[in-house]
Amino acid sequence: MVFISIQEAIKQGKGKVSLHGWCYRERGSNKLRFITLRDSTNIIQCVIEKDKVSEVIWKDAESIGIETALELTGEIKKDERAPTGYEMSITDLHIVGKCDNFPIQKDTSIEFLADNRHLWLRSRKMTAILKIRSTIFGAVHQYFRSRGFYEYQSPIFQPTQAEGGSEVFKVPYFGDSVFLAQTWQLQAEPAIFSLEKIYTLAPSFRAEKSKTSRHLTEYWHAEMEMAWSKFEDIQDHAEGVIKACIKAVLDTNQEELKILERDPKKLEPSLHKPFPRTTYTEIVKELEKKAKMKVEWGKDLRTVEEDILSEWYDTPVIITRYPKIVKAFYMKEDPENPKVVLGFDIIAPEHYGEIVGASQREEDISKIEDNLRKQGENPRDYDFYLDTRRYGSVPHGGFGMGTERVIAWICGLENIKDAIAFPRTPDRYKP
Predict the structure, then answer these.
(1) What stretches in the chain show pLDDT beneath 50?
(2) Domains of the chain
(3) Model confidence pTM above 0.85
């Protein structure tokens, strides 16, 4: 017996097929049973008629509950009344794994679904999201590899913090202590002097106690570093990889977008139009002019300002040249204005917030040491990093993209927790 997927059976359209999967829905009478079978590819309605099967098969059919694992054989035919337009008349049935009283039923709470995340992954919604997630990860790899970037990994255990002590997970390490990676960057920059153009997809950890719909304590970071770059090069690559993710999803995951009730037309402007590029100073002026919102120059943009900004555009917007005082020690000063840095954030439309943070990296070792001291850090703790400036430094830059934030936006999710299989937050580290 050769088993094929439900989608392959639907494509075949008629004739005898054998499928295996799980019971998604079940109903019927004492003469007729309807089983909706699901696998990773689709669902299909299956009909079992009592007078057309053996007593053993009928008895098994009556015992089937939601999430029972099954092997089914029968004739498939087109039927517009069926959920996916095809129906299968069952001639043989085998229960592989019984399931009594599956915990997840209708009208379950968000907290209950979180407690049973390991089972909720089977839902049509989560299956659709995880397929789109896989597409996006593949698009990131394809984008960078096709442009001559090498995949490179840096350690999760790191000796120094990169972006602020209040957001760092400090963990014991054989009598000493280390930090979980906030970013690959400090250990990635040394590799550009070898490979020149590098990227990664790896987990990052932020010990923020934020409980918003945009934050996770563990998330996946798409990051790149590039030797010999100009500030515009980094912006171009950030825009390029986002467009590559959108295109891949629109090309591959139309059915999943339907399941999620996500209108693909809302994504098309971001694929076909250039992302607007503006400056922090211009945005501060526009917020006061258009929204009557006064933002003191030098203060970072908050969620409320980003939300207003996101309503002005139907694509992501690139905001450059933030005040130096709100950005990391490694960001390069603008040669034309030392109060700002050659850094940028990308804000997604539809209130999805920041999805990319980036900069040209400071090449001047004395400025990096000065920045570290001003942030209360000892430059000697960063000797390995400063060596990259001592021995043949070159212009370079990079960015980090929050993959779950991109997934949440593309899928139209209400909460970033649904963009990853097992979300980690200040309140939850299991299942």
Answers:
(1) none
(2) 6-97 (2.40.50.140), 114-419 (3.30.930.10)
(3) yes
